[in-house]
Amino acid sequence: MQGIRRSFHYILLFLDIIILVFSFSIADLVSRNRLPDVFQEKLDVISLPEIFTILIFFLIWFFSSKVSSLYDELKSYNFLSEAFTLLKNISIQLITGVIILFSLKNVLLSRFFLLLYLSLLLSGTLILRGVFRLVRKILVNKVGIKKKVLMIGSSNIGREIFGTPDNSLIMGHDLVGFVAEAPAGSDLNYLGGFQDLGKVIDEYEIDEVLIALNGEEAEKLDSIMKVLTGFPVRARIVPEYFKFVSNKYQISFFNNIPVIDVRNDPLDELHWRLIKRGFDFIFSSLFLLLIFSWLGFLIAVVIKVSSRGPVFFKQERWGRKNRKFTLYKFRSMVKESRDLNSEGRFVQATKDDSRVTQFGKFLRKTSLDELPQFFNVFKGNMSVIGPRPHAVPMNIESKDKIENYMLRHLVKPGITGWAQVNGLRGATDDKKLLEKRIEYDMFYIENWSFWFDLRIIFLTIWIGVRGDPNAY
Prior knowledge:
- This protein is α/β, with parallel strands linked by helices.
- It folds into 3 domains: about 1-145, no CATH class; about 145-245, Rossmann fold (3-Layer(aba) Sandwich), CATH 3.40.50; about 270-465, no CATH class.
- About 50% of the residues lie in helices and about 10% in strands.
- The protein has 16 helices and 11 strands.
- The strands form 4 sheets. The protein has a 5-stranded parallel β-sheet. The protein has a two-stranded antiparallel ribbon with strand order 6-7.
- Strand 4 (about 210), helix 9 (about 220-230) and strand 5 form a beta-alpha-beta unit.
- Helix 1 packs antiparallel against helix 3 (about 50-70) and helix 3 packs antiparallel against helix 4 (about 80-105).
- The longest helix is centred in the middle third of the chain and has 37 residues, at about 270-305.
- Mean pLDDT is about 80; it is low at about 40-45 and about 165-170.
């Protein structure tokens, strides 16, 4: 069935490209008032710049669809998810068009052209997906190109697959039942034991089998495979250890051996790290030159005048791969403040904390105390966006108590992050709050994209303007 699904996706990509070219052509004809020439058979031959522009739009669409996984199987399960991903691709087309508009001196594209082109492209691709889903459902359920699938084994993962027949039917699967050592539940269609496997395949005319064995059944795999060699069926194995795998897992190769990556980590790939580092360097350089150069000076003067002590607060933190670095902040607490209490435990800043100076309250409320961390970003210790770096004592206290805590250090820490724009800022004395922050950090790591970073930046600015009740 995987081959049919791939065929569906290749067909969809081909039709999207046709709509892209069609939308470009119509928008070009209308924006240049050339439609009458079509009827008079005096249509000019398409120019080389226009061909070049169409090619650029096509390449941008193709590569952005790869990044956004527009044609992945999981996207097609939910129309809203597919439509949202489609909108991201259209947005990239808009950005590309604006760049071309301002780059070509002969004004190949006009604003009216872009508006019409994007409108046609969006409406055309959305209508195509609605029609495509209907046609695919008819082909699968009416014409009968779906395949009969048998589940072998009684692992929890196997039962989860069996319990979602609606999605499977859309993609052309008909889960007829399962064979196992013993029935795993009254709600599942138990067809017999392993000794009945051959008879069940023959009787139900099975096309594919999914092998989902639990730990006790694993020793039966050899005998199961021997039975399957006697039938023209495709076999797929669902490992039980998928319960340890994130839903963002990937299949990769170690030499020539296929392996399962427990979780997706886009920033493990060099090209994405280079893109993120390039953005961090440019963003931090501009910020330090245009804003920090004067705002930082004013803040430093007020800190020196209002309280005794240094302007900057420096503290050791852990970065990517637990590498130690010195984090910079504007000092917001009295000089005598300590991070550890009499019992040697780390004390987080709390609301109305007596250690915070009067001006420090303003700095922390507005997050201005974090501005010196752009030096950390410029140096490469941190990123603009990423999990917030915690104090070393907090890391030591939490790493063995909170699941996935140390996985935050797979990427560089950030000045702001996905957890912070979702309200998880400030003290996390409550274990559940800290677990929730780690959950958001892991979501960011597994779902990172350049557009995700931009979204967090805009949300951070908006929350800063609106005010964050957890900023203290």
